[in-house]
Write a structure and sequence with these properties.
The protein is 19% helix and 35% strand. With 512 residues, the chain is α+β, with helices and mostly antiparallel strands.
Length: 512
Amino acid sequence: MGLSWVCSHPRLTSYASGLLTSLVTLLVLWLSSAQLRVVGPDQPVTATVGQDVVLPCHLSPQRDARSLEVRWIRDEFSEIVHHYRNGEDLYGEQMEAYAGRTELARDGLSGGRLDLRITGLRPSDDGLYICIVKYADAYDEAMVNLVVSATGTDPHLSLGDYEAGGVRVLCRSAGWYPLPQLLWRDARGQHLTLVSQTHSQDQEGLFQIEGAVIMTGSVEGPLSCVVRSSRLQQEQEASLHISAPFFHNAQPWMVALALVLVLLAVSIGLSVYLFRKQATLRRELEKKAAELAWRKCLLPQNTVKVTLDPHTAHPELIVSEDHRSVRRESKSQQVHNSQDRFKYRCCVLGHEEFREGRHCWEVEVEVEGELENESCWAVGVTRASVNKKEKIFPQHGIWALMYQQGQLMPLTSPQIHLPLSPVPTRIWVCLDCTQQQVSFINADNGVEIYTFTAASLNGESMRPWFLVETLGTQLCLKDSTPQTMSTALGGSCDSPATPASPLLGPAGAAQE
């Protein structure tokens, strides 16, 4: 009868059905929550600054975590260290301090491991982390305590000023985390009272600590400074011993005398250094004078007359009738296009070919008006077999000095700028086939500009090479007699000094 009564009342039947559904839902949620349990380590995780560390965390009982949402956060900041959801790492809310330094160990997710790897540990990483797991309406978390430490340098002891009948002794050590303890001990192991102690942190968060004591004659035996880390259970120690007579006689006037003696020693040392420096400079000047005297006699003996070969000139170059000067025009000339003519660069070669011996010729640069800083020109030598149809300078086969954008530079790789002011307009080009060197000398004062010391001529024929890239610039070959060259370089050649190299000074001159 009771059952037939309930069935005859539809409202009661609907109420009972809804209540049953709610109870079942709550039971399912409770079971799900009870099944999702996150477990962390029982002990703190310890690591050293600069190393990588893994913070362990796992599900219990074991289950596949690849489809779950996992968050690692810092407890004190409540900010995200790493965020993982449905197989994807999410970095939008990650703390900036951990950018590029965290990784969820994917190989353990299927087995329920939620380990977080942090690379390049910093002092600021020290502290509490929380591993949070969420699935549907289920939620649990576990805490992991990361203890970061760093061992610093050995203590450095130094003596300070005379003070209170003794000497201030300083002890300094850096690179610690967390802040260590600094202690002073005498030979019997008794602790001494510090007169001062300071500490600071560098940009990486590592500590430097410094402490001082006054050491008097009553302190027997060596004095020890100990820097101790209670976290690491480690300590660094350094000792210093000062004999007792030092303290018995330690008076302010003696300290002043010691200071005077130190200053006197420094002054003597500085005087010796300056004397040696002047002697070295004097030897270098004598060497330069010897080189200059050698060039004064060498150049006239090896002077050759060079003429330009118009058959090699670029169509925009005009070679004079005597073949002794060249300039550039704005329009190409009507000339025969042969294999001997430069096609892309405004170059021209000299008629003469040299295979052996030493040969020098003088080139003068003339620039119209105020175009000097805008002009571009070069002088030097090249192999007779140089490819005249290339668009750029060959990587090998041209040894030259080039003026461009107001600076003089040798054609080298990498580029070298020669800080010359003013830039010489009369230059000697000297080719030494025997020593395989190409040198450039300022014709106004005889000073070497640059030397290619390993030209790798390989026994090939060499020809003078000229470049005129800008309008209003002209290169002229000059006739120099022994008398005019000797006068330009300063005096006669009756007794030339003999330099270290057969040509123009030491072989390494180009490197100076």
